């Protein structure tokens, strides 16, 4: 079992930056691939970014490439999502998740956090 707790969300103006954190506890953090997803009002939850156990392999959805960076600190059992050049369309609840195998598919993730809200004003 893995417990995930996100933090760092908030209200920011367009063009601004936020860094989301996801603290993991429970089973060995380093063995899991970690992902970030988001869900905007009235929309399905969508993939944002993912990193393998060493974060040498990362994936991003096209709309955030060049603006968002996923990273992990195994010593702190924490995964981060640095978000720069934020746009109003990035507004959503952001969730971190853990998977046995690195994937961009929501169904591949076994453990989920409770989410943190990011709101970007124009």
Explain what you see:
With 122 residues, the protein is mainly beta. The protein has strands at residues 2-7, 10-13, 18-26, 33-39, 46-51, 58-60, 68-73, 78-83, 92-99, 109-112, 116-121. The strands form 2 sheets. Strands 2, 4, 5, 6, 9, 10 and 11 form a 7-stranded mixed β-sheet that branches. The chain is globular and about 40 Å long.
How is this fold's topology laid out?
Layout: E1 2-7, E2 10-13, E3 18-26, E4 33-39, E5 46-51, E6 58-60, E7 68-73, E8 78-83, E9 92-99, E10 109-112, E11 116-121
Parallel strand pairs: 2-11
Antiparallel strand pairs: 1-3, 3-8, 4-5, 4-9, 5-6, 7-8, 9-10, 9-11
Count of beta strands: 11
The number of helical runs is 0
**Which class do the helix and strand fractions yield?**
mainly beta
Query: Quaternary state, please?
Result: single chain
| Mean pLDDT across every amino acid position | 95
């Amino acid at each position: 079992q893995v417990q995930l707790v996100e933090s760092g969300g908030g209200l920011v103006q367009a063009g601004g930056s936020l860094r989301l954190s996801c603290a993991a506890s429970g089973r060995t953090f380093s063995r899991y691939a970690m992902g970030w997803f988001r869900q905007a009002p009235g929309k399905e939850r969508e993939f944002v970014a993912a990193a393998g156990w060493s974060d040498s392999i990362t994936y991003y959805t096209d709309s955030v490439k060049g603006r968002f960076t996923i990273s992990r600190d195994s010593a702190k059992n924490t995964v981060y999502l640095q978000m720069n050049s934020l746009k109003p369309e990035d507004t959503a609840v952001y969730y971190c998740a853990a998977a046995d195998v690195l994937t961009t598919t929501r169904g591949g993730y076994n453990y989920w956090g409770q989410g943190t809200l990011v709101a970007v004003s124009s």
